[in-house]
Amino acid sequence: MECKNRDEKVRYLLEKRTGYDFDDLVLIAELLRSEGGCPWDMEQTHQSVRNDFIEETYEVIEAIDTEDPVLLREELGDVLLQVVFHARMEEEVGRFNMDDVANDICAKLIHRHPHVFGTLEVENSAEVLSNWEAIKGEEKQRVTMTDKLRAIPPMYPALMRAQKVGKKAACFDFANADEVYKKLDEEVAEVKAAAATGDQAAIEEELGDLLLTVTSLARKLGVSSEEALYRATNKFIDRFERVENAVLAAGKSMDELTMPELDAIWDEIKRA
């Protein structure tokens, strides 16, 4: 339906009986941001809702990790709203609109899949990824290895970014995990030396080097350091809860017990 004014657009949405679609979402974003819309939505900028986008993305990840399709459907909708909302802001100032966003991603996917939309033949997913990176480098005019390293977004979670940087810098890498183990020993020794001086800047620098080396080890062992730490943190919380429950069941509180006593309970739970 072609709506000419705001009242017609609102009436169209309120009277629609067949369910809403993507075009309706774009229209809703327009109405929220336009004159007579929502005061809060009208005040927002890319910067003001920046963190909302991050939060919504993490909520999608939670739905994936908990294998909850109902929650995933809802959270994907929230992320989609963020995309439409940002595109609407740009449309208002005449730079681009949602159709331009869709056009660009379609063109990119066609260009980066010559084995699907062209004549290139590939044997496996490894070749697909190799071609993808080569085409991406040409598109972005990333000539040097440093260009590719700097292209990795600095706002990525630190562990994820470090592991991606290590993977990109494959020409300057450890040969195997055994070499990383040796480097870890060196880095731990340097952290201890820095700690002995009490120099906080030096301690931070050496700890950073240690963490960077840990991501290299994760890469060599075929593990995502980001996911490994995520799961380890969850495991710690679960075990901590069991320790606390055991302490409470004994009629005590956590701060009444010494660290060795808590460690003993922790080890017992770990063995179980």
Summary keywords:
single chain; 272 residues; mainly alpha; 14 helices; extended
Describe the structure.
With 272 residues, the protein is mainly alpha-helical. Helices cover 73% and strands 0% of the residues. The protein has 14 helices and no strands. It has helices at residues 6-15, 22-33, 39-43, 50-65, 69-92, 98-111, 114-117, 125-140, 145-150, 158-168, 177-197, 200-220, 225-249, 259-271. The longest helix is centred in the last third of the chain and has 25 residues, at 225-249. The protein is extended, with a radius of gyration of 26 Å. It starts with 5 loop residues before the first helix and ends with a helix.
Kindly report how far apart the N and C termini lie: 64 Å
**Which whole number gives the mean pLDDT?**
93
Quaternary organization: single chain
Main sheet attributes: strand count, strand direction, barrel closure: none
Sum up the overall morphology in one term: extended
Q: Figure out the total of helices.
A: 14
Assess the beta-strand content as a share of residues: under 5%
Strand tally is 0
Q: Structural class, from helix and strand content?
A: mainly alpha
Q: What order do the SSEs take from the amino end to the carboxyl end, as H and E? A: HHHHHHHHHHHHHH
Instruction: State the low-pLDDT regions, or none.
Output: none
Q: What is the radius of gyration computed over CA atoms, rounded to a whole number of angstroms? A: 26 Å
Percent of residues in helical segments? over 70%
